Amino acid sequence: MDSVGKVTYITYSGIPHLGHVTWVSLLKLIAKTRVISYKEVLIKLPTNEIIIAEGLRPTLISMSLKPLNKCIVAIALSPSILNKKAHMLYSRADVIIAVSEMVRQLFNPEKIVVVHPRPPDLEHLIKLNVDDKKPWICYSGPLIPIKGIHIIPEVVKHITRSANNVKMIVMGAGDTMSLRRKSKELGVEDKIVIAGPLPRPKVINTLRHCSIYMQPSLFDAFSIAVAEAMALANVPIITKNVGSKDLVEKLDRSLIVSYDSEAIAQIILTILSPKNTQELGKNAREIVARELSLKNTARKLTEVLERCLKHAY
Length: 313
Fold this sequence. Notes:
Elements: E1 6-11, H1 21-30, E2 32-37, E3 50-54, H2 56-63, E4 71-76, H3 84-91, E5 95-98, H4 101-104, E6 112-114, H5 122-125, E7 136-140, H6 152-160, E8 167-171, H7 176-185, E9 192-196, H8 200-209, E10 212-215, H9 224-231, E11 235-239, H10 245-248, E12 256-257, H11 261-271, H12 274-291, H13 294-312
Parallel strand pairs: 1-2, 1-3, 3-4, 4-5, 5-6, 7-8, 7-10, 8-9, 10-11, 11-12
Protein backbone atom coordinates (compact mmCIF):
# COMPACT_ATOMS: atom_id res chain seq x y z
CA MET A 1 0.00 0.00 0.00
CA ASP A 2 2.42 2.66 -1.22
CA SER A 3 -0.36 5.26 -1.27
CA VAL A 4 -0.75 5.13 2.52
CA GLY A 5 2.24 7.38 3.12
CA LYS A 6 3.19 7.82 6.76
CA VAL A 7 1.51 6.60 9.94
CA THR A 8 2.07 8.10 13.38
CA TYR A 9 0.93 5.88 16.25
CA ILE A 10 0.42 7.97 19.39
CA THR A 11 0.38 6.35 22.83
CA TYR A 12 0.42 7.63 26.39
CA SER A 13 4.05 6.69 27.11
CA GLY A 14 5.53 6.08 23.67
CA ILE A 15 5.14 2.32 24.12
CA PRO A 16 2.13 0.48 22.65
CA HIS A 17 -0.28 -1.50 24.82
CA LEU A 18 0.93 -5.11 25.13
CA GLY A 19 -1.93 -6.34 22.97
CA HIS A 20 -1.05 -3.84 20.23
CA VAL A 21 2.68 -4.50 19.94
CA THR A 22 2.08 -6.84 17.01
CA TRP A 23 -0.19 -4.25 15.40
CA VAL A 24 2.68 -1.78 15.29
CA SER A 25 5.07 -4.39 13.89
CA LEU A 26 2.59 -5.19 11.11
CA LEU A 27 1.88 -1.51 10.42
CA LYS A 28 5.61 -1.00 9.89
CA LEU A 29 5.48 -3.65 7.16
CA ILE A 30 2.52 -1.93 5.48
CA ALA A 31 3.52 1.74 5.77
CA LYS A 32 6.24 3.98 7.17
CA THR A 33 5.21 3.99 10.83
CA ARG A 34 6.58 5.67 13.94
CA VAL A 35 5.44 5.50 17.57
CA ILE A 36 5.48 8.59 19.78
CA SER A 37 3.98 9.64 23.12
CA TYR A 38 1.25 12.26 23.21
CA LYS A 39 3.74 14.61 24.93
CA GLU A 40 5.99 14.51 21.85
CA VAL A 41 3.31 15.55 19.36
CA LEU A 42 4.20 19.25 19.26
CA ILE A 43 7.91 18.46 18.85
CA LYS A 44 7.42 15.76 16.20
CA LEU A 45 4.39 17.37 14.59
CA PRO A 46 2.79 14.96 12.08
CA THR A 47 1.39 16.45 8.86
CA ASN A 48 -0.40 14.77 5.95
CA GLU A 49 -0.28 11.45 7.82
CA ILE A 50 -2.63 8.83 9.19
CA ILE A 51 -2.79 9.28 12.96
CA ILE A 52 -3.64 6.28 15.15
CA ALA A 53 -4.35 7.23 18.77
CA GLU A 54 -4.26 4.69 21.59
CA GLY A 55 -6.16 5.79 24.68
CA LEU A 56 -7.98 8.87 25.93
CA ARG A 57 -5.23 11.52 26.12
CA PRO A 58 -3.64 10.55 22.80
CA THR A 59 -7.08 10.68 21.18
CA LEU A 60 -7.77 14.10 22.70
CA ILE A 61 -4.56 15.62 21.37
CA SER A 62 -4.99 13.85 18.01
CA MET A 63 -8.24 15.72 17.41
CA SER A 64 -6.27 18.99 17.31
CA LEU A 65 -4.21 17.49 14.46
CA LYS A 66 -7.23 16.80 12.23
CA PRO A 67 -6.79 19.80 9.91
CA LEU A 68 -3.13 18.88 9.25
CA ASN A 69 -3.54 15.18 8.51
CA LYS A 70 -5.32 12.66 6.28
CA CYS A 71 -7.23 10.76 8.90
CA ILE A 72 -7.57 10.26 12.66
CA VAL A 73 -8.03 6.71 13.95
CA ALA A 74 -9.06 6.24 17.59
CA ILE A 75 -8.56 2.92 19.36
CA ALA A 76 -11.54 2.38 21.67
CA LEU A 77 -10.19 0.06 24.33
CA SER A 78 -10.54 1.38 27.88
CA PRO A 79 -13.46 1.67 30.31
CA SER A 80 -13.38 5.41 29.55
CA ILE A 81 -15.54 4.70 26.49
CA LEU A 82 -18.46 4.23 28.90
CA ASN A 83 -18.10 7.88 29.94
CA LYS A 84 -20.39 10.12 27.88
CA LYS A 85 -17.78 12.84 27.20
CA ALA A 86 -15.07 10.30 26.36
CA HIS A 87 -17.47 8.46 24.06
CA MET A 88 -18.20 11.73 22.24
CA LEU A 89 -14.46 12.31 21.83
CA TYR A 90 -13.82 8.87 20.35
CA SER A 91 -16.83 9.32 18.07
CA ARG A 92 -15.21 12.38 16.46
CA ALA A 93 -12.48 10.20 14.94
CA ASP A 94 -12.66 9.45 11.21
CA VAL A 95 -12.19 5.72 11.85
CA ILE A 96 -12.55 3.82 15.12
CA ILE A 97 -10.75 0.59 15.96
CA ALA A 98 -12.97 -1.43 18.29
CA VAL A 99 -11.07 -4.14 20.13
CA SER A 100 -14.16 -6.37 20.27
CA GLU A 101 -17.68 -6.76 18.92
CA MET A 102 -18.96 -5.60 22.29
CA VAL A 103 -17.15 -2.28 21.84
CA ARG A 104 -18.27 -2.03 18.21
CA GLN A 105 -21.88 -1.93 19.34
CA LEU A 106 -21.22 1.28 21.28
CA PHE A 107 -20.33 3.33 18.18
CA ASN A 108 -21.48 4.26 14.68
CA PRO A 109 -20.93 1.01 12.73
CA GLU A 110 -19.93 2.92 9.59
CA LYS A 111 -16.76 4.12 11.31
CA ILE A 112 -15.79 0.85 12.97
CA VAL A 113 -13.22 -1.82 12.20
CA VAL A 114 -12.88 -4.59 14.81
CA VAL A 115 -9.24 -5.52 15.41
CA HIS A 116 -8.61 -7.91 18.28
CA PRO A 117 -5.52 -7.36 20.45
CA ARG A 118 -3.14 -10.32 20.59
CA PRO A 119 -0.28 -11.46 22.82
CA PRO A 120 2.95 -10.30 21.15
CA ASP A 121 4.44 -13.76 21.68
CA LEU A 122 1.36 -15.75 20.62
CA GLU A 123 3.28 -18.00 18.23
CA HIS A 124 5.63 -18.93 21.09
CA LEU A 125 2.81 -19.52 23.59
CA ILE A 126 0.92 -21.98 21.40
CA LYS A 127 4.07 -24.12 21.07
CA LEU A 128 4.80 -24.41 24.80
CA ASN A 129 4.31 -27.76 26.52
CA VAL A 130 1.10 -27.73 28.56
CA ASP A 131 0.86 -31.40 29.51
CA ASP A 132 1.39 -30.90 33.26
CA LYS A 133 -1.98 -29.41 34.21
CA LYS A 134 -3.09 -29.02 37.84
CA PRO A 135 -6.59 -28.49 39.32
CA TRP A 136 -5.86 -24.77 39.40
CA ILE A 137 -8.08 -21.84 38.50
CA CYS A 138 -6.11 -18.74 37.61
CA TYR A 139 -6.53 -14.99 37.23
CA SER A 140 -3.88 -12.62 35.89
CA GLY A 141 -4.27 -8.85 35.75
CA PRO A 142 -4.76 -5.70 37.80
CA LEU A 143 -6.48 -6.18 41.15
CA ILE A 144 -8.94 -3.32 40.66
CA PRO A 145 -12.72 -3.17 41.15
CA ILE A 146 -13.70 -3.10 37.45
CA LYS A 147 -11.98 -6.49 37.00
CA GLY A 148 -14.53 -7.96 39.42
CA ILE A 149 -11.84 -9.63 41.52
CA HIS A 150 -13.73 -9.10 44.80
CA ILE A 151 -16.05 -11.96 43.77
CA ILE A 152 -13.19 -14.49 43.64
CA PRO A 153 -13.35 -15.64 47.31
CA GLU A 154 -17.12 -16.20 46.98
CA VAL A 155 -16.60 -18.31 43.85
CA VAL A 156 -13.94 -20.39 45.58
CA LYS A 157 -16.21 -20.86 48.61
CA HIS A 158 -18.93 -22.35 46.38
CA ILE A 159 -16.46 -24.55 44.49
CA THR A 160 -14.75 -26.04 47.53
CA ARG A 161 -18.05 -27.34 48.87
CA SER A 162 -17.93 -29.91 46.06
CA ALA A 163 -14.26 -29.99 45.00
CA ASN A 164 -11.81 -29.65 47.85
CA ASN A 165 -8.65 -30.18 45.78
CA VAL A 166 -9.00 -26.95 43.78
CA LYS A 167 -6.60 -24.01 44.13
CA MET A 168 -7.21 -20.45 42.95
CA ILE A 169 -4.09 -18.51 41.92
CA VAL A 170 -4.38 -14.73 41.65
CA MET A 171 -1.55 -12.89 39.89
CA GLY A 172 -1.34 -9.12 39.60
CA ALA A 173 -0.71 -5.84 41.36
CA GLY A 174 -3.33 -3.93 43.30
CA ASP A 175 -5.53 -4.33 46.36
CA THR A 176 -4.27 -7.64 47.72
CA MET A 177 -5.26 -6.73 51.29
CA SER A 178 -9.01 -6.65 50.57
CA LEU A 179 -8.76 -9.95 48.74
CA ARG A 180 -6.86 -11.56 51.63
CA ARG A 181 -9.33 -10.17 54.16
CA LYS A 182 -12.38 -11.48 52.29
CA SER A 183 -10.72 -14.86 51.74
CA LYS A 184 -10.14 -15.15 55.46
CA GLU A 185 -13.70 -14.06 56.30
CA LEU A 186 -15.07 -16.82 54.06
CA GLY A 187 -12.62 -19.41 55.35
CA VAL A 188 -10.95 -20.06 51.99
CA GLU A 189 -7.58 -18.39 52.57
CA ASP A 190 -5.86 -21.79 52.28
CA LYS A 191 -7.47 -22.30 48.83
CA ILE A 192 -6.42 -18.96 47.31
CA VAL A 193 -2.82 -18.12 46.49
CA ILE A 194 -2.48 -14.35 46.13
CA ALA A 195 0.84 -14.16 44.32
CA GLY A 196 0.89 -10.41 43.70
CA PRO A 197 2.71 -8.95 40.69
CA LEU A 198 4.94 -11.46 38.91
CA PRO A 199 7.38 -11.08 35.99
CA ARG A 200 5.80 -12.11 32.70
CA PRO A 201 7.83 -15.37 32.35
CA LYS A 202 6.55 -16.47 35.78
CA VAL A 203 2.96 -15.61 34.83
CA ILE A 204 3.26 -17.62 31.61
CA ASN A 205 4.82 -20.57 33.42
CA THR A 206 2.00 -20.56 36.00
CA LEU A 207 -0.67 -20.41 33.29
CA ARG A 208 0.93 -23.45 31.63
CA HIS A 209 -0.13 -25.47 34.68
CA CYS A 210 -3.59 -23.94 35.14
CA SER A 211 -6.65 -25.81 33.90
CA ILE A 212 -9.19 -22.99 34.07
CA TYR A 213 -8.84 -19.25 33.66
CA MET A 214 -11.42 -16.94 35.24
CA GLN A 215 -12.05 -13.35 34.12
CA PRO A 216 -14.95 -12.02 36.25
CA SER A 217 -14.79 -8.42 34.98
CA LEU A 218 -17.59 -5.91 35.33
CA PHE A 219 -16.33 -4.46 32.04
CA ASP A 220 -13.35 -5.42 29.89
CA ALA A 221 -13.12 -4.06 26.35
CA PHE A 222 -11.19 -7.21 25.38
CA SER A 223 -8.77 -8.77 27.95
CA ILE A 224 -5.45 -9.86 26.51
CA ALA A 225 -5.08 -12.13 29.56
CA VAL A 226 -7.93 -14.34 28.32
CA ALA A 227 -6.20 -14.75 24.95
CA GLU A 228 -2.91 -15.65 26.68
CA ALA A 229 -4.65 -18.20 28.88
CA MET A 230 -6.40 -19.81 25.92
CA ALA A 231 -3.07 -19.99 24.08
CA LEU A 232 -1.79 -21.98 27.05
CA ALA A 233 -4.77 -24.39 26.94
CA ASN A 234 -6.69 -22.88 29.84
CA VAL A 235 -10.47 -23.18 29.66
CA PRO A 236 -11.75 -19.58 29.88
CA ILE A 237 -14.66 -18.71 32.14
CA ILE A 238 -15.66 -15.09 31.56
CA THR A 239 -18.49 -12.74 32.41
CA LYS A 240 -20.79 -11.29 29.76
CA ASN A 241 -19.13 -7.87 29.71
CA VAL A 242 -15.72 -9.16 28.61
CA GLY A 243 -14.90 -8.41 24.96
CA SER A 244 -12.88 -11.57 24.45
CA LYS A 245 -16.18 -13.44 24.39
CA ASP A 246 -15.60 -13.06 20.63
CA LEU A 247 -13.12 -15.92 21.10
CA VAL A 248 -14.81 -17.80 23.93
CA GLU A 249 -18.16 -18.15 22.14
CA LYS A 250 -16.36 -20.07 19.38
CA LEU A 251 -15.32 -22.58 22.05
CA ASP A 252 -18.51 -22.93 24.11
CA ARG A 253 -21.12 -20.24 24.84
CA SER A 254 -21.86 -21.76 28.24
CA LEU A 255 -18.43 -20.53 29.39
CA ILE A 256 -19.76 -16.95 29.23
CA VAL A 257 -21.78 -16.32 32.40
CA SER A 258 -23.43 -13.55 34.38
CA TYR A 259 -21.55 -11.76 37.14
CA ASP A 260 -22.71 -14.09 39.88
CA SER A 261 -20.50 -16.18 42.15
CA GLU A 262 -22.80 -19.23 42.11
CA ALA A 263 -23.16 -19.16 38.31
CA ILE A 264 -19.39 -18.93 37.85
CA ALA A 265 -18.76 -21.71 40.38
CA GLN A 266 -21.37 -23.96 38.77
CA ILE A 267 -19.85 -23.82 35.28
CA ILE A 268 -16.38 -24.40 36.75
CA LEU A 269 -17.62 -27.50 38.59
CA THR A 270 -19.30 -28.72 35.40
CA ILE A 271 -16.05 -28.74 33.40
CA LEU A 272 -13.52 -29.42 36.16
CA SER A 273 -12.66 -33.02 35.27
CA PRO A 274 -9.27 -33.51 33.55
CA LYS A 275 -10.97 -35.04 30.50
CA ASN A 276 -13.18 -31.97 29.99
CA THR A 277 -10.47 -29.39 30.62
CA GLN A 278 -8.01 -31.21 28.38
CA GLU A 279 -10.39 -31.29 25.41
CA LEU A 280 -11.67 -27.74 25.88
CA GLY A 281 -8.15 -26.45 26.50
CA LYS A 282 -6.90 -28.01 23.28
CA ASN A 283 -9.76 -26.43 21.34
CA ALA A 284 -9.19 -23.06 23.03
CA ARG A 285 -5.59 -23.12 21.85
CA GLU A 286 -6.62 -23.83 18.26
CA ILE A 287 -9.23 -21.06 18.28
CA VAL A 288 -6.91 -18.34 19.55
CA ALA A 289 -4.18 -19.39 17.11
CA ARG A 290 -6.61 -19.14 14.21
CA GLU A 291 -8.59 -16.04 15.16
CA LEU A 292 -5.57 -13.97 16.24
CA SER A 293 -3.24 -15.14 13.48
CA LEU A 294 -0.83 -12.66 11.93
CA LYS A 295 -2.71 -13.02 8.64
CA ASN A 296 -6.07 -12.05 10.18
CA THR A 297 -4.57 -9.16 12.14
CA ALA A 298 -2.74 -7.79 9.09
CA ARG A 299 -5.94 -8.02 7.03
CA LYS A 300 -7.86 -6.00 9.62
CA LEU A 301 -5.15 -3.33 9.91
CA THR A 302 -5.07 -3.02 6.14
CA GLU A 303 -8.84 -2.45 6.25
CA VAL A 304 -8.29 0.37 8.77
CA LEU A 305 -5.79 2.09 6.48
CA GLU A 306 -8.03 1.62 3.43
CA ARG A 307 -10.93 3.23 5.32
CA CYS A 308 -8.64 6.16 6.11
CA LEU A 309 -7.62 6.61 2.49
CA LYS A 310 -11.26 6.64 1.40
CA HIS A 311 -11.94 9.32 4.01
CA ALA A 312 -8.94 11.39 2.91
CA TYR A 313 -9.81 11.33 -0.79
